[in-house]
């Protein structure tokens, strides 16, 4: 039965209001409680199901909570008239006598239902009894009475729905919904319960939580209430509750209070669970024994973002405002007038009271406008506080996106809505979103406000920003030991320092304060600072976190990706900031793009990923960045810095609005090209956010839009709808066909947009169809390039010409469409500027997308994309990374350089890039320069020798055809003198001490010799572009002129005298760096000086404006611009871009291929320079047990150096490759590795220590900057000391320049300069183990001390540790020469073969004893190989290497200059001169020997034996100076030697023992091989020497001449002759004329003769018979007296 005294408590208007009222308003309302006696209030409700979807959640408990604004809803059933049963029931908690129920229906009422009761087993259908049946329900409120019956469970079982007739086509059916379900009767026990399941309170206020009794208490009754849980923390978020609540006798209501704490508008939503227990005897616990108190943050967010006012109404009602209404009386009238906010406002006057069904408001329609730089829409509204609803809509894509606000405040209020919070009007669950980039206006609906004069002001756009910390006022620096507030942390104390300091920032007050400090964190350590909040905050509605960062670099780096990665961490969830889930993102420590050291860092929350460090427990780590309970942030600094690094942070803020990802996105190609007359196929691709099949249908409406093509003329107008059905796979595509027409024979390209709008998905790209240009001569590939250029140039506007002269950085583009809008001629990727997919395909896709934009322009002039591929395609992960130029210079192999560059060209072109800013032809004259490794070396002759090969490798041999897949446009850089700048130590740490400085030369001739000459072979090879240097040139002390404005060198010398016909491209922001004047002035000066294209990465628009204006003023001539554009277009035609503009991907699979890496491995091996090799320690045996240490042994990034993946490069495994350690391990498994040499040496036999530098680029690497020096790190030095102190050791220096090792050299057995070998460390291992011999030579001088730098070949004082050109080899000399001989022909081959055939070899090596002869033969071979032609020079290098081997073995410190000069001579093409200089080191002459003549004369041709004879020798040599000795021979036997006088004469006394007789005497001159020129030996004609017998002396000394008669009578005879030659033979003794005795002379020439006994006194005479030397002779007669 219906009770007329219980009207429906919810009017229809309130029902509608409940659907739109903000949740906070509804939740904070405190409804009146239901009448006493409602037994359901203390029960528990359940239902067969309930609705929970985009429209809201409607649980069964909402039907018994006593709140008339809440309801239960079943959710929709089938939309047709079929049976649909649902139920909702209440458990009263105890049996009661029930006699009626009250049901308050929502519009979806039950036309048929039963009221059922049960006492037990509610899950058993048999337990239920129907007490009332309704078959014609009409909604509203039903008060159903029935006979009293015992029940614990009461159910409404609904079987028949009502229909809705809003659709004229047919009725619709939904489900069931109840606002309230009340049960009345008499309880057997009094139940106590919470009055509702939830209570919401504003944080900081006290929540009043009601309790109720099912019936009035007869006496005082009590129940205990305690806080037992929830997300809130007692003492932090609320005051804990534990109290006994009393119901006075006769009452049914009581309450408990919960005081809460306000954490501000960003505080997180917290909950408190309250629980009932311990009811007094008169009570029992009812169904709702727990409730939740929600503590809601409130108040205006601390928004400091700016507002851009669109309409301030100070000048009347703006154009475009219109009104609308259901009838004239209610249609608003708009006017403006003074308002009490100040100034004028908009007044919308509604003059009549609206009737039911009326509608009215005003609108402002605008052309599609980009509002995407802002976060939301805002205006001021003068409210009355009467509760009406103000609705407003924003428009985009032909749709309305709605928002409303309740007029609950009297006075002016600011109404704001984030774009992301707008939903489609009428269908809020739709994925369609307002597109702020194409806003078409807004509308305001006044219908619910009614009649009146409604005031508005300052309609505009706002930027949503909330400050976390600005370092002003009381900064929350943490107390010592506390982790709440701002504090530093690290792996050790005091690694990071922090304070609050005053520091200026542009646009802020002069006394601005910042967080600042410095840090120095050792490698392997960590450190940073955190700001932990005292309580969690809700950041979930924001887009990201923002901060102002003060770059550590004192000068602006030359790359958008320069600087270290600084990590920012967010602390999400958990109990506090130290136990939360940590999410991380990074930004670059560098300058802002506008040239400020302060830069704004925006980090969208979507960029954060889970950090590797997670301090929270498992419950905290839910893997989702919720940010509903954010505890703060942390900033991690960079470890491993060489010096202390300063930092500063300001204005840490939350910004923007969270942008929920759409369920699906509809996208297309941005540009679709089609030949006129063909049908364009426009793809439409649907992608789901989660990658799953589409959950519901998506429809896409399309139609032709605006453009230069005319519907009906150039194409058929079109429109239609595409449907992607539910279940369609993500990535599904459909096609829109656009039929085009060929009209004119000659026509420019024409465009039209294809407008898309979608239901159920967001729309991404709006495609443009481009009808290709046709018929013009420049499009005809068969015509000569000059004709094509002339034709095109004649068609171009000024804007198109200046656009061609402009190059932008891809990161500088606000949108790719700027390429088309500005007609840009070029885009580049600076170091580290890479696509999201840093792969070959990712690059090609990116470049092709940019190219499509260029081809959407009128003339379809293709874009030329450029990169710094300086040692391979070094921006691309996985590309082949070669040694830097300094290593290639060490290899001294021009063929290898060409092969490296050709391989690079293949990889670059395969990624769609046709242009590289390489090769660098600088001559490095000071190793303190941070770019020295980009040079081939310090000798201009060496750079010259490599220049042509580098260009040919990149461009091929025909510079007019660069269209192949293995050719790119080369750029010779940096013209001119960049390697010769003067070091200024005052700039260390605050600028670039040497990079971008001034090159001082005494004369233009010196400039040519040192720096210009290397460009000549590049020009001969047809290099297509040249990049001027940042540096300046000063000749003979004149004022320096920066190369970017040096007309004499750029135009007169380069383009004029040297005939360069390519184009000059500036360096990165090279114009900006010019001194004096405005940017426009600098641009004009640069262009007038010969610059053709400006690399203006971010200010490309300013360049276009500057040149356009300067042409208008006459400061830049039309002819100069035409010349520049002609040069640019010529190269684009040469590249084939007009004919094949898109990426040729045919060689994409070769990027980083094994074949390419083999080339890099060869280059790495050939680049190694063996400086020292004691006892031939290298090469190592393959089974040698090795101990490997050092910082660069296993670091791929360090061995690759700067310009690898990023501008500055980076340590670690930054790209695929093989470290040196990995190369060693592949060749030898017996390896122990310990980076810091801390592991035991064990049984290792040889140590290998790989030391050197970490990566750097340009001025960042100048000595004195960023801790860079020529000294090894302390860790590397310690590793050398440790390993070399324990083992024989090899030290490899992996660096971009020499490192000082002088003081440790004595402990190093083998020293190798490894340079920066690239990704193929196995190439280094190849030479260590002898798979490839060491053949490299120093490309620069290796200094002995830091104060010796700069030290270069040719210096007046030159004493490096190792001279330029030094390099020990480990290949066999004979093998080297034999291999060469097989490649030669003619005289050169004969000369080399003569060396091989000469007797100068000891096995496979030159015989040291035959050095002079070997050198002369090698000199003769070198004479046949003089010249700079590549093959000749290579052959000459081999010949000279043999002499160098000898010279290096023999050289000392004083020979360094000679050795270096020899290398310079060789690289200059003077191979014989190189040998001559090396021969000087050996003390050997290479001049041709001259013949000598020797003559001999004797002082007497006849001489008695023993008499002196002198041989006089004279040696003469025409053109020479005989020196040395002569030898005199008698009858062919050497008898005497003498040294020639300066006059070539010598006197030789022949020996006394020349036998008697006739003799032949000759003189032999051995020659003077070391004389200059050498003198050959010669032999004199023979002279006859006759030696006659000589007279001896005969004596009888010692003879007793007076004897007795009986005494023996003995005559003692002595025969003497020439001293040393004793006479031989016999003597006779005569007595008175008769011979009385004879004797033979003994060895002394003496004899004794005994006379007969009877001899008396007589005259005695002795005679000598003579021999072959002495004549017979007689002694003096003596008287023998006998007594």
UniProtKB/TrEMBL annotation:
Enzyme class: hydrolase
One MF term in the entry's GO annotations: hydrolase activity
Catalyzed reactions per annotation: Hydrolysis of terminal, non-reducing beta-D-glucosyl residues with release of beta-D-glucose
Signal peptide boundaries: 1-34
Region (Disordered): 46-78
Domain F5/8 type C, residue spans: 28-186
Keyword Repeat: yes
Keywords, in A-Z order: Calcium, Glycosidase, Hydrolase, Repeat, Signal
Entry EC no(s): 3.2.1.21
Family membership noted in the UniProt record: Belongs to the glycosyl hydrolase 3 family.
Protein name: beta-glucosidase
């Amino acid at each position: 039965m219906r009770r007329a005294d219980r009207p429906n408590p919810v009017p229809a208007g309130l029902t509608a209001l409940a659907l739109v009222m903000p949740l906070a308003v509804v939740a904070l309302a405190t409804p009146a409680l239901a009448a006493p006696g409602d037994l359901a209030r203390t029960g528990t409700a359940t239902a067969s199901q309930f609705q929970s979807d985009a429209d809201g959640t409607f649980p069964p408990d909402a039907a018994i909570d006593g709140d008339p604004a809440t309801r239960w809803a079943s959710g929709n059933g089938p939309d047709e008239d079929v049976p649909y049963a649902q139920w909702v029931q209440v458990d009263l908690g105890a049996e009661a006598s029930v006699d009626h129920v009250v049901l308050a229906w929502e519009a979806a009422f039950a036309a048929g239902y039963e009221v059922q009761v049960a006492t037990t087993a509610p899950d058993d259908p048999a337990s239920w009894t129907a007490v009332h049946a309704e078959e014609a329900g009409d909604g509203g409120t039903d008060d159903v009475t029935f006979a009293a019956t015992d029940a614990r469970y009461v159910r409404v079982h609904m079987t028949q729905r009502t229909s809705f007739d809003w659709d004229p086509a047919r009725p619709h059916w939904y489900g069931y919904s109840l606002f309230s379900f009340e049960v009345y009767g008499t309880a057997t026990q009094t139940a106590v319960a919470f009055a509702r399941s939830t209570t919401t309170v504003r944080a900081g206020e006290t929540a009043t939580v009601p309790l109720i009794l099912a019936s009035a208490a007869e006496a005082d009754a009590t129940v205990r209430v305690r806080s037992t849980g929830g997300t809130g923390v007692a003492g932090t978020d609320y005051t804990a509750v534990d109290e006994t609540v009393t119901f006075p006798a006769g009452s049914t209501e009581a309450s408990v209070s919960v005081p809460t704490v306000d954490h501000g508008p960003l505080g997180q939503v917290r909950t408190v669970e309250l629980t009932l227990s311990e009811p007094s005897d008169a009570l029992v616990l009812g169904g709702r024994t727990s409730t939740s108190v929600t503590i809601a943050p409130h108040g205006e967010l601390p928004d400091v973002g700016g507002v851009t006012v669109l309409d301030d109404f100070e000048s009347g009602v703006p154009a475009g405002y219109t009104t609308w209404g259901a009838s004239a009386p209610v249609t608003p009238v708009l006017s403006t007038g003074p308002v009490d906010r100040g100034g004028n406002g908009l007044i919308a006057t509604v003059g009549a009271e609206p009737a039911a069904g009326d509608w009215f408001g005003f609108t402002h329609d605008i052309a599609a406008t980009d509002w995407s730089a802002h976060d939301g829409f805002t205006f001021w509204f003068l409210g009355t506080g009467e509760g009406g609803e103000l609705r407003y809509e924003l428009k985009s894509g032909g749709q309305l996106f709605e928002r409303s606000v309740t007029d609950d405040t009297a006075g002016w209020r600011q109404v704001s809505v984030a774009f992301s919070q707008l939903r489609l009007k009428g269908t809020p669950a739709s994925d369609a979103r307002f597109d702020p980039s194409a806003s078409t206006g807004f509308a305001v609906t006044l219908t619910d406000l009614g009649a009146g004069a409604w005031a508005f002001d300052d309609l505009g756009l706002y930027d949503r920003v909330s400050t976390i910390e600005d370092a002003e006022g009381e900064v929350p620096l943490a107390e010592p030991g506390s982790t709440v507030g701002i504090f530093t942390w690290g792996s050790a104390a005091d690694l990071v320092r922090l304070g609050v300091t005053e520091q200026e920032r542009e646009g802020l007050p002069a006394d601005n304060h910042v967080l600042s400090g410095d840090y120095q964190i050792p490698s392997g350590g960590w450190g940073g600072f955190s700001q932990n909040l005292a309580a969690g905050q809700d950041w979930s509605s924001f887009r990201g976190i923002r901060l102002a960062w003060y770059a550590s670099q004192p000068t602006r780096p030359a790359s958008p990706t320069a600087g270290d990665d600084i990590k920012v961490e967010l602390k999400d969830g958990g109990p506090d900031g130290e136990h939360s889930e940590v999410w991380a993102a990074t930004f670059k420590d560098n300058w802002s793009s506008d040239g400020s050291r302060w830069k704004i860092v925006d980090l969208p929350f979507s960029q954060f990923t889970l950090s590797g460090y997670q301090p929270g427990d498992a419950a905290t780590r839910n893997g989702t960045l919720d940010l509903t309970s954010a505890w703060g942030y942390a900033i991690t600094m960079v470890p491993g810095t060489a010096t202390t690094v300063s930092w500063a942070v300001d204005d840490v803020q939350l910004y923007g609005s969270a942008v929920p990802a759409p369920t699906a996105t509809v996208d297309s190609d941005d540009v679709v090209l089609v030949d006129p007359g063909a049908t364009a196929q426009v793809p439409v691709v649907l992608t789901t956010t989660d990658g799953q099949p589409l959950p519901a249908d998506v429809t896409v409406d399309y139609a032709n839009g605006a453009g230069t093509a005319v519907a009906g003329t150039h194409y058929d107008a079109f429109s239609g709808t595409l449907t992607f059905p539910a279940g369609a796979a993500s990535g599904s595509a459909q096609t829109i066909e656009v039929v085009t027409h060929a009209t004119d024979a000659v026509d420019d390209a024409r465009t039209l947009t294809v407008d898309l709008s979608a239901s159920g998905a967001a729309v991404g790209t709006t495609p443009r169809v481009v009808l290709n240009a046709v018929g013009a001569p420049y499009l005809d590939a068969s015509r000569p390039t000059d004709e094509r250029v002339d034709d095109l140039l004649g068609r171009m506007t000024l804007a198109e010409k200046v656009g061609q002269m402009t190059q932008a950085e891809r990161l500088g583009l606000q949108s790719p469409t700027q390429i088309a809008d500005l007609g840009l001629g070029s885009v580049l990727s600076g170091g580290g500027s890479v696509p999201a997919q840093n792969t070959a395909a990712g690059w090609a896709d990116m470049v092709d997308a940019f190219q499509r934009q260029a081809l959407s322009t009128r003339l379809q002039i293709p874009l030329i994309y450029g990169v710094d591929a300086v040692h391979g395609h070094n921006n691309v992960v996985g590309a082949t990374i070669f040694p830097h130029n300094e290593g290639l210079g060490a290899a001294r192999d021009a063929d290898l350089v060409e092969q490296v560059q050709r391989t690079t060209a293949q990889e670059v072109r395969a990624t769609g890039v046709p242009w590289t800013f390489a090769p660098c032809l600088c001559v490095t004259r000071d190793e303190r320069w941070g770019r020295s490794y980009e040079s081939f070396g310090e000798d201009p002759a060496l750079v010259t020798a490599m220049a042509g090969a580098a260009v040919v490798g990149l461009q091929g041999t025909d510079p007019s055809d660069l269209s192949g897949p293995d050719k790119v446009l080369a750029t010779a850089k940096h013209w001119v003198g960049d390697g010769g700048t003067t070091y200024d130590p005052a700039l260390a740490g605050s600028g670039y001490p040497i990079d971008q400085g001034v090159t001082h030369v005494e004369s233009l001739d010196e400039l040519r010799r040192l720096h210009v000459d290397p460009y000549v072979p590049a020009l001969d090879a047809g290099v297509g572009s040249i990049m001027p240097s940042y540096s300046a040139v000063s000749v003979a002390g004149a004022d320096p002129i920066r190369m970017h404005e040096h007309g004499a060198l750029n135009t007169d010398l380069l383009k004029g005298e040297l005939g360069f016909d390519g184009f000059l491209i500036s360096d990165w922001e090279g114009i900006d760096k010019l001194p004096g004047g405005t940017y426009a002035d600098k641009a004009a000066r640069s262009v007038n000086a010969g610059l053709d294209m400006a690399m203006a990465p971010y200010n490309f628009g300013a360049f276009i404006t500057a040149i356009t204006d300067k042409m208008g003023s006459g400061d830049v001539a039309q002819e100069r611009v035409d010349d520049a554009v002609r040069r640019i277009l010529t190269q684009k035609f040469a590249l084939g871009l007009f004919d094949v503009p898109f990426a040729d991907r045919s060689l994409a699979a070769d990027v980083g291929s094994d074949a390419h890496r083999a080339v890099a491995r060869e280059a790495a091996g050939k680049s190694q320079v063996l400086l020292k090799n004691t006892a031939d320690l290298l090469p190592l045996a393959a089974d040698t047990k090795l101990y490997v240490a050092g910082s660069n042994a296993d670091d791929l990034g360090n061995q690759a150096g700067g310009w690898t993946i990023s501008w500055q490069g980076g340590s670690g495994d930054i790209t695929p490759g093989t470290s040196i350690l990995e190369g060693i391990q592949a060749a030898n498994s017996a390896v122990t590795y310990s980076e810091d040499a801390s592991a035991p040496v064990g049984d290792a036999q040889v140590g290998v220590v790989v030391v050197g530098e970490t990566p750097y680029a340009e001025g960042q690497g100048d000595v004195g900057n960023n801790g860079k020096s020529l000294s090894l790190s302390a860790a590397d030095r310690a590793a050398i000391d440790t390993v070399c102190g324990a083992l024989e050791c090899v030290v490899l220096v992996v660096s971009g320049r020499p490192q000082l090792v002088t003081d440790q050299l004595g402990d190093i057995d083998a020293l190798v300069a490894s340079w920066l070998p690239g990704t193929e460390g196995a190439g280094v291992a190849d030479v260590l183990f002898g798979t490839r011999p060491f053949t490299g030579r120093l490309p620069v001088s290796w200094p002995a001390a830091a104060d010796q730098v700069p030290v270069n070949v040719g210096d007046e004082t030159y004493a490096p540790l190792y001279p330029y050109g030094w390099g020990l080899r480990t290949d066999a000399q004979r093998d080297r020469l034999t291999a060469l001989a097989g490649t030669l022909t003619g005289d050169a081959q004969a000369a080399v073969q003569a060396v091989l055939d000469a007797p100068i070899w000891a096995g496979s090596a030159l015989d040291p004893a035959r050095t002079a002869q070997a050198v002369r033969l090698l000199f003769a071979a070198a004479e046949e190989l003089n010249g700079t032609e590549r093959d000749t020079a290579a052959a000459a290098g081999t010949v000279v290497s043999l002499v160098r081997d000898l010279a290096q073995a023999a050289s000392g410190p004083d020979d360094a200059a000679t050795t270096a000069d020899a290398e310079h001579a060789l690289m200059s093409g003077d191979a014989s001169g190189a040998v001559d200089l090396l021969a000087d080191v050996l003390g050997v002459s290479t001049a041709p020997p001259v013949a000598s003549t020797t003559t001999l004369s004797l002082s007497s041709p006849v001489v008695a034996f023993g008499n002196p004879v002198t041989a006089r020798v004279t040696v003469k040599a025409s053109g020479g100076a005989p020196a040395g000795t002569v030898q005199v021979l008698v009858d062919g036997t050497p008898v005497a030697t003498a040294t020639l006088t300066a006059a070539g004469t010598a006197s030789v006394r022949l020996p006394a023992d020349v036998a008697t007789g006739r003799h032949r005497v000759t003189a032999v001159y051995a020659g003077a091989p070391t004389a200059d020129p050498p003198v050959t030996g010669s032999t004199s004609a023979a002279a006859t020497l006759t030696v006659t017998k000589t007279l001896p002396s005969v004596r009888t000394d010692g003879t007793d001449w007076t004897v007795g008669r009986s005494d023996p009578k003995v005559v003692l005879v002595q025969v003497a002759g020439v001293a040393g030659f004793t006479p031989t033979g016999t003597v006779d003794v005569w007595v008175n004329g008769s011979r009385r005795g004879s004797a033979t002379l003994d060895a002394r020439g003496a004899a004794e003769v005994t006379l007969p006994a009877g001899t008396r006194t007589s005259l005695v005479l002795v005679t000598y018979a003579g021999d072959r030397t002495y004549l017979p002779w007689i002694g003096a007669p003596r008287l023998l007296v006998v007594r």
